[in-house]
Design brief:
By secondary structure, the chain is an alpha/beta fold. The chain has 2 domains: 169 residues, HUPs (Rossmann fold), CATH 3.40.50; 93 residues, Pantoate--beta-alanine Ligase, Chain: A,domain 2, CATH 3.30.1300.10. The strands form 2 sheets. The chain has a 6-stranded parallel sheet with strand order 1-4-3-2-5-6, sandwiched between helices. It has a 3-stranded antiparallel sheet with strand order 7-8-9. Helix 7 packs across helix 8. The chain starts with a strand and ends with a strand. The model has no long low-confidence stretch (mean pLDDT 97). The structure holds pantoate. Pantoate binds next to strand 2 and helix 7.
């Protein structure tokens, strides 16, 4: 496995190859990331992973500075997973001049759910991902389903800008108690870590209620928010949406997703569960 830090080194490592499978990450890798690399490997082409903590997608006061940078450990995991090239640029390499051209997802998407709580976040994500796509020139790119709205943004960008890239979604990996794996789980105190699976349990409760015929999604989401608040969480949102459009479900919505984002102390966790709904 080669580790490169500049666009020029990346070009040399790729040697004109454009058919690679790409796994963009911000590092501090866990088993969920490794599973994305394994998924990329299944496509039988060389695998490139990037490690870049992208300042453009962090708001003022968010965790950009304290986001763990663990390059050496990450490279070991990537190598063991069969990754061929790691691209780990620094901020000056990715943004040699201020990034005044940006990719702006539609406002209804950019300012909804996570975007409502993190203004500018999805423009920052879409912009860096487009830049990474242009540098790596992959045929396939793999993203985790855990960042469900991010995946929706990337799919929309790829479709509307005619990018010749197939987006592949990897399933969320969970700890034995149900907590979705996340680089941010490492921020949790021991007590918070014990409490953290409640977010997933609340989403599961919504799914279970819909499966028994409940269709009042707003009431279900409000109950989940109330229980989380009572347990000491600070809830950004809990919502049920159409999984294809991310819009509020309509009578014909068959694939739904229950999504939530909430803070435990200084840690913001997100999760989602996709499920089928057989109609009202
Ligand atoms: O999901 C992430 O880790 C990041 O948002 C991504 C896609 C690597 C862009 O910085």
């Amino acid at each position: 496995m080669q580790t490169v830090h500049t666009a020029a080194e990346l070009r040399a490592a790729l040697g004109g190859q454009t058919g690679v499978a790409f796994v963009p990450t911000m590092g501090n890798l866990h088993a969920g990331h490794v599973s994305l690399v394994e998924l990329a490997k299944q496509h039988g082409t060389p695998v490139v992973a990037s490690i870049f903590v992208n300042p453009l997608q962090f708001g003022a006061g968010e965790d950009f500075e304290r986001y763990p940078r663990t390059l050496a450990a990450d490279c070991k995991k990537l190598e063991a997973a069969g990754c061929d090239v790691v691209f780990a640029p620094d901020v000056a390499e990715m943004y040699p001049v201020p990034q005044t051209f940006t990719v702006q997802p539609p406002e209804t998407l950019a300012n909804d759910l996570c975007g409502a709580c993190r203004p500018g976040h999805f423009a920052g994500v879409a912009t860096v991902v487009l830049k990474l796509f242009n540098l790596v020139r992959p045929r396939i790119a793999v993203f985790g389903n855990k960042d469900f709205q991010q995946l929706h943004v990337i799919r929309g960008m790829v479709e509307q800008f005619n990018l010749p890239i197939t987006i592949v979604a990897g399933e969320t990996l969970r700890e034995p108690d149900g907590l979705a794996m996340s680089s941010r789980n490492g921020y949790l105190s021991t007590a918070e870590r014990i409490q953290a699976p409640q977010l997933q349990r609340e989403l599961s409760a919504i799914v279970a209620a819909v499966e028994t015929g409940m269709r009042d999604f707003d009431t279900l989401a409000a109950s989940a928010r109330r229980r989380l608040n009572m347990a000491g969480w600070r809830v950004d949102y809990v919502a049920v949406r159409d999984a294809e459009t991310l819009h509020p479900p309509h009578a014909d919505s068959r694939q739904l997703v229950a999504l939530g984002a909430a803070w435990l102390g200084r840690t913001r966790l997100i999760d989602n569960l996709r499920f089928s709904c057989t109609g009202a």
